[in-house]
Structures are given as structure tokens and as C-alpha cells.
Amino acid sequence: MKPGSYVMGIDVGSSVTKGVLLLDGQILSTFMLPTGTDLNVTAGECIRRLLSNRELTQKDVLYTVSTGYGRTQVEEADRTITEITCHGRGAKALVPRAGLVIDIGGQDSKVIRLDEDGMVADFVMNDKCAAGTGRFLEVMAERLGMSLLDFGRMWKTARKPANISSTCTVFAESEVISLLSRGIAPDAIIRGLCDAVADRLLGMVHRVGLVPDVVMTGGVSKNEGVRLSLEKKLSLKVVVPDASQFAGAYGAAIIGHELAMRQ
Amino acid sequence: MAPEGVKTTKSHREIAGETRRIKVIRALARKSWVHSAAKLVINYMERRGGTPYQINAIRCFADDFKHAYLREKPCIFTSAFVPNELIYGLGGVPFLPEAASGFAASFGFAKESLAVCESLWYSPDLCSFHRAGVGASVLELAPKPAAVVVSSHLCDGGKRSLYQISQYHDCPFYILDVPYTNSLQSLDRLGKQIEEVAQSLEQEVPGLSKDHMDEAIANSNAACSHYLDLCNLRTNIPSPWRGREALSYVVLFLWSWGSPWLTKFYQALAKHAGDIVQSGEYPVRNERFRLAWLNLRPYYSPRLFDYLEDECEVSIAFEEFSYMYWDPLDARDPYVSLAKKIMSNPGWGPIERRLEVINRIVGEFSVDGVVQFAQWGCRQHNGGASVLSDYLRKKGIPFLNLDGDGVDARNSGEAQSLTRLGAFVELMESRNIRNSR
Amino acid sequence: MVHLACSYIPYEIPLAAGIPAARGVFEGPLPSTEGYLPRDFCAYARAFVRQYKDDDVVAIAESCDAMRRVYDVLRYWNLARTVYFVDVPRTRDPDAISFYAEELESLASKLLNSEISPCHEFSERLMLAINCMNQIRKELSDVFDLVSERQLSAGRGIELVVNVNQLLADFRSTHDAPEAVPCLTHDSEPGMFDTIIERIRGMISQTVSEPAPLSQDRSRIPVGVSGTCLLDSSLIECIENAGLDVVFIDSCLPSRTYDFVVDNKTTSRLFHALAEAYLSKAPCPRMFQGTERIKRLYELASDHGAKGLVYFAPKFCDQAYYDFIEIRQSLKALGRLPVLLLEGQYGVGKTGQALTRVEAFREMLEGR
């Protein structure tokens, strides 16, 4: 592989498509956009924007790896790798001491345990319903009439969490309504919701085994409330790298870089 | 390397569900002074005029728990429908993890038990009574079993979860493989199995002896006689006992046959019901409707019953799990007698047996409607919903299949349940209006 | 025909009674059973609840809570002409075997006395049926040896088993005089069973001789598959498409149906021989036979060099849920053999969720 080679990782998630462009293994640029109905078009747009930002074309790219639930829809991809492996690799690259990766996306959540070399040692994935995912939090935020960005601030002002038992979107929504009608403060409800999501994740974490450092990736990693609840329940710090949303795409690009090197 | 069964390491306990209160409860349960103090408190409650049947129920468990936690007697874990006369008859104390889950939920610490199970890969689609039972064992909230005895009726989760508990504690496991058809051949096979289990327990578990069998059978029959008095009193309109309580005390019905305390409990309870009938101080005074309640109830929240009994003035006249389905036991032939008891369970065998009992309950207790609490993950009961619904509809009895979970609040939508119960009461009302026209 | 719900109900009995029989193998889309069974019932149980043809009868085993309810529902709603119930013990002690022998004898007598049986005499035919099934099992077992040696794709193996199952349902068409379907005389009896075996041999040689779609890439990682019921072949195809080689399948349709022999030496106690053989075959997760299941899986994995195990649990199958917990912990402790859990309905292998998990599992195994 010649110096000056570009490699790309594209993560087509259920809500957001992310792209990472590497130059000689280093992140050159990133881009993300909402995943539309046509995954191929969205992925193409992501790639185009990623490259045009640097005045490059697809021809300049040596290798492309796609990941995410729409990974097979990326025409430009030389190889597809699952989001589990990619999130593991991406998180390890972002946080070298990472032992456990918690990835919560729009419609699924996964917990990945890494071995010392950063390879996936075990994983568990939940995508049966929207319970405890980004979509769940969106619906709840909508019901409370606030933004997801407020969750962290509200979590901190809550004196104690309201008791919300379910992460089923339908059940939890009626629990929230009932709590509001009983005059429970929205910040307590938010903390209760974050706790419920964390409880659900906790089960998954213990299934694969807790190994510090714990790294959170995916869209929900930016939700400070969930991170705080998780930290409290795990009694340890949860690292959220700046590029946490790009962990999957970054992991894909790193694998692409390695594969290109072998060529 | 010789393969072994499930070996759940202690580390599982350490990492999930191990909250401070769990540690405290676990430690306290094993302190003899706690049991002595509990005895003093119960005596004090009695002196201060506590309700006798409640005092007896507490004594029944306090006594068993003391023997089990302090290892004064061998504690044998059993699944919900094993006739525990067998365990008392061997001089042991039974412990029912499934029933204990209800306790855990009532006292608000089922959450940790469920969490520990989740970390051990137990699917949340499994019945929570079983999951919480395993969780309580892994967290060692439950006492340590000397052996585990299960029967293959009524449900798969019961026997499977107890098998896993036996593996966790590395103790002997026995299964009574209950034949499906009630025949002489089945009775013979089951009777033999019970006898063999009794013999094995006597040999394997120090401290067990069949010497107590006559006494246990006599206790069971005596309790049965008082229980039938109670059932008779419960046919009274209005109902002399709150259904929510009855659904909580179902635990004794599952647990304590063969214990001397059960006789005292039912005797006191029958007296209590008799007094209510005499005095007219009914718990639901203006009883508008009477329900038969199938399966169990949510144990973590009384909200459904506050609504039903207090707001809607609807009584639960009788419960499916309170139905006395066996004949008095014969001390001369205890094992076949216990086999007969098992085989008489209306939940076992073709569904017609269950329908017949529900029909009897509807008639004997003058029931206006039937509610089945559709416990999440209970294939045994829920699978009959379509048949039950049609059967009762043909008889003109309103039926509600109420989705919920008795232990795991996450599987229940309380608001949805209340709406459905409300609509069901309205349905009974409109039916009454129609009938009175 | 007789629709058999469980691998513990011997094919031999309907076959001897001259009635075609097959295990319930369904391919989606399935008829809607909404209203008969709740939605939290496994897909296999739900698939069994359907309106059967006039001539069809159903034999349900006491497999699990769900199948007991299927038995109730089929009868209550008159969905099949007759529904038989076979009480399968969970242990295999001598009493259990005797009990099961009587249970099988009772099933045979009911089938023989039913309108759909053309036979009136049974005992000699039972021996022939046992011999026939022993032969079929042996041949299928040999085919799956090829799968284990990675000379044949497991997907093709499953396809073959499904076709053999179908043939047993249509065996009348294999006979020269299908319309009469008499209780075959001594002369023609061997003819019928021989024709079945011959047809199956034809199927097998076709499967084995056709260009195998199996990749010759020896770097593909070998894995085993286990579970209660595989539902359909899509899962195996999914695993193979994800780049893994399936070297054994421990499930009720293929291996636990053919991987045993019924003792045919004692002619006087054939039902006993059947009961003993069926209760002694590789145990299903519903059985209580100590650690035998785990031991067997561990041996299968060791013998065939499996690097991992894919465990399939039909969604809401309690037996599988409990079995998986035990298998995962034990195999992990024994040989650090990773186990992947997949849950699903019919067509699970065609879903993106299943493919993602299996591919991630492969990537994980590759990284080891």
C-alpha cells in the first residue's frame, strides 16, 4: 500500500449513516447524515460528501468497508463487516484501554467484550424492539416536550429518579403520562427513564462480562443522562470518546486499511 | 474432562443484583437472633390482638424459614405442585422458589433477583416467577437446599428452573415424571416414583426419615377439613374475604400441606370468615359483581385490586388456585395417595378438566365474570385462553384475559390493565342492564 | 396421513398401520393462528394449529406446555379429524420404558382401529416397519457423516431429510397399487417397504452425487448447530452463507430423528424395543437425563472440530431458553467453546438480524 492512500468506512445505521475517511490510517474527515428510505442513495451521498470535502473522487479511494444494518446496500464497498466487529475495533482505536463497548443506536443496542488485542471476545445484541434504544428515548423526550440534549442537565437536577419499570415504549409512555399527572417533576422522570435504559443494558453487560474500560458508542452515547445512570449502576466511569458516533465507521475504515495493506 | 452441569460461579452474584440491601437481607436471614426476635414480634402481635389467621400464616413461614435458614432441618426445594406432605413427612421443610418469588415481589426485592438472572442469560420471555426464583437462589436470599424435588406437572419452567438451582447448589435432584392420563397404570407409576424419591431422600439427605409421614398426612387432612369450611363460607354473598388477600395466601395453599401450622391457619381463617358473615362487616360492602380469578396476580403492586375492590366494588369470590381438588389422603397408602393428589390437579391433563373446575367455581361461588391473569411467559395457562373464552361465552359468562406479570413489573402496563379491567366492569354492568330489561 | 409433532413418536407405528406419516415441517408464510393461541407461543406450536384435511389426523406428544395446549386447541376447535396424544416420559428408567411401550401400543391400536388405517393385522408389519426405518436411519446417518467431514453442505443434508420426511407422507404413491392400499399381504409387504427404501436411496445418491455447493475453502470455520427445533432450513443456509461450515446439527428434525437404531432381534416385545430405542436416542432438551446432552454436544464438537456452536431457540420456546443457559455455561467452561444464541420464527435465516449475528460470530471466531 502506497503512502498517501485513502481508505473509507461507511456505517449505514437505522437512523444515521456515518462515514470516515482515512489517509494512511489517520482520520482525515468524517460525515454523517440521516438514513433515508433508499440506503444505497444515502450511502452514496455520504461517500460523495466525504470525498468532495477533500476534493477527492471514489477513484482515489483504495479500499472501502461498509458496516451497519444497511451494509450490503453500499455499492462502493469492497467488503462488508458487521457493526459488532467494527464498533469493537473503532472503540479500541478511540480508547486504547477499552475492554467493553456499549453501542446504542437508533433501533438496537449491543454490548461487545474485547480481548487484550481488541478483538471481539463475546457480544450480545438486542434488536427485538425499540425498548431502551435511541428511538425509545426520542419518543419519551417528545412526550415530555423536551430535547434529548436536555437529558444530562435534567438528570443532574433530579433529586431522585422516578420509578419507571419498563423500557417498552408503549408501557413506559403511559408510565410517564401517569407520573406527570401525579405531579412528578420532569427531571425525576428523565432520570427514571435513563435508569430504566441503564438497567436494561446492565443485564446485557453482565451477560458478556464486565471488563473495564467501558466505552459507549453510537448515537445514544451523546445522551449524558444515560451515561450518568450507567456509571452509577456500574460504579465505574464510562468513557464516551468525541467521535463516539463514528466508532462503527472508524472501525470499518481501520479494517479496510488493514485489508488494503495486505493487498 | 468430564462435562458437568451448570456451574454458576459466585462471581455472578458479585457482579449483578448484589446491592447493599440484598447483602443485609442475606446475612440477617441466617442469624439466629433474627429468628428469635421474629418470634417475639409475632407473640407481641398476637398479644396486641393481631388477626389470628394472619398470625398463624406468619408463624407457618417463620417456623419453616427458621428451620431452613439455620439448617435445623433439611430444606428441600420443591416445584409448585409437588405435594409437600412428602417433605414434611420426611421431617424436612419445603421451600418453593416460585412461590418465594411472589414474596420477593411483594417486599420489593424481585428486581435484583431478575437482574441476576438476566446476567445469566435467562430470557426475559421466561415466566418471571421462575426467573426470580433462580435469582433468589443465586443471590442466596433463599436458603441452601439439601435436595431438589420437582414434578413434571404443570409447567416446564418450574422443573427446569429448579434443575438449574440444584446444579448451582450441587445437590441431588429428583423428578416426579407425572403421566398425562389419569389411569390406574399412571397412578401406579407415579406412586412408585414418589416412594422411590422418599427412599432416596431418606438415604441421601441426613436428618430425613419417613417416620413423620403419618403425622404429615394427618395434618394435611385436618387442614383440608377446615379449608373446606372456609370454601363453604366463601360462597356467601357478599364475599367475606378480600380476593387480593386470598391471592396472596395462595402461597400457603401451594406450600404448606403437611405442616401443623396450616391446620391452625385455615381454622382461624374459617372462623374469621364466619365472623364476617355473622357481623355483616364485608370487605367490599356494596359488592356489585363477583369474579373468579384464574392464575396469580401482580405481587409488586396492589393498584389493580384497589381499583377493582375499592373503586369498582367488585369482589374476587374465588380463585382457580384455591380450588380444593383432591380427596383426603390415606395414611395407610401415602405414596399412591399423594400420586392421586397430583393426578387430580385440574390444570393437568386435557383442558376439559380445567374447564369443568372453572364451571364449578362459577356456579358454586355465584360468579358474574371470570378474569384470567395472563402471566407473561405462562404457556400452561395462557394457551387455554381461546378455549376458555369461547367456553365461557357460550355459558354467558364474561371473560377477560388480562395480560400482565406477577413479578416483573417491566412486562406489565398498569395503565393498560386498569383500562381493560374498567371496560370489563362496564361490560358486566351493561349485561346486567340488558338482563334486567 | 398422520402429522407427527415430535421426534419421540415413532414413524414405525403409522407406517406399520399402513398410514403415511410425517413430522410437521412447515415453510412460511404460515396460516394465521391468531385467536387460537396467544402470540407468545413458539412458531412451531402455532404452525401446528391449522385446519387439517378431512383424512388427516394429528399425533401430539407431551413435549412441552405449548404442545399440550396445541392438543387442546386442535380438539376444542375441531381442526383435525382426530388428535392423538402420546405421553412421552422424561426419563428412561425401566419403568419409564415399560410405560412408554404401553403408550405406543395404545397409539398403534387406536391408529389400527381408525378409519384411515387399511390394516387389521399389525405385528408382522411392525417388524418390517422397524427394519425399514432402521435402514433409512442408517442411510441418513451416513449422509450426515459426509456433512461432518465437510464433503456435503449441511443445507443439502437438511433438504434431504425434509424430502425423506415428505416421502414417508406420500409413500402410498410409491406403491404399485396406490388406490387400493390394502393391508399388504406377506408377498407384497416387503415390496412396499423395499420401494420406500429404494426411493430414499435414489434421493440420497442424487444429493450426494450432485455438484456440492459447499465451498472447498478449508479456511471456513466449522461450527455445530443445536437447539430444540430448527423450524426450517433457512438458519443452516444463513450460517453457510455467512461463511461458516456446519459440521453437525443437533436438532429434532435431522440428527435426533435418525441417529439411532431400534433393536429388531426380539420379535416378541417390539413396542418395548421401540420405547427403549426412542427414549435412549440423543436426548432432546425436554428430557431429564442429567448431563448426557452436554456431554454429547461436547463430544460432537470435539470429534468434528467445531470451533463454535450456534444455538437456535424458537422465540418463546421455554425448553430451548433453559437448555441454552446450561449449554452455554457448560461448553464455555469445558472447552471455551463459544456459543451464539439465535432466536426467531420461521424464515429466521432470511432476516438481516440473524445474518448480522452469524457474521459477527464468524468474525469473532476468525479473530481467535
Question: In short, what is this structure?
Answer:
By secondary structure, chain A is α/β, with parallel strands linked by helices.
Describe this structure in words.
The complex is a heterotrimer of chains A (263), B (437) and C (368). Chain A has helices spanning 39-52, 83-94, 134-144, 151-157, 169-181, 186-208, 224-234, 247-262, and strands at 6-12, 16-23, 26-34, 61-67, 79-80, 100-104, 109-114, 120-126, 214-217, 238-239. Chain A has 263 residues and is an alpha/beta fold. Chain A folds into two domains: 6-88 and 246-262, Nucleotidyltransferase, domain 5, CATH 3.30.420.40; 99-240, 2-Layer Sandwich (Nucleotidyltransferase, domain 5), CATH 3.30.420. In chain A, the strands form two sheets. A five-stranded mixed beta sheet of chain A has the order 3-2-1-4-5. A five-stranded mixed beta sheet of chain A has the order 8-7-6-9-10, with helices on both faces. In chain B, the strands form two sheets. A four-stranded parallel beta sheet of chain B has the order 2-1-3-4, with helices on both faces. In chain C, the strands form two sheets. In chain C, strands 2-1-3-4 form a four-stranded parallel beta sheet, sandwiched between helices. Chain C has a four-stranded parallel beta sheet with strand order 6-5-7-8, with helices on both faces. In chain C, helix 8 packs across helix 13 (352-366). The longest helix of chain C has 26 residues, at 123-148. Chain C is globular and about 60 Å long. Classes of the chains: A alpha/beta (263), B alpha/beta (437), C alpha/beta (368). Chains in contact: A-B, A-C, B-C. At the B-C interface, helix 9, helix 10, helix 17 and helix 18 of B face helix 3, helix 4, helix 11 and helix 12 of C.
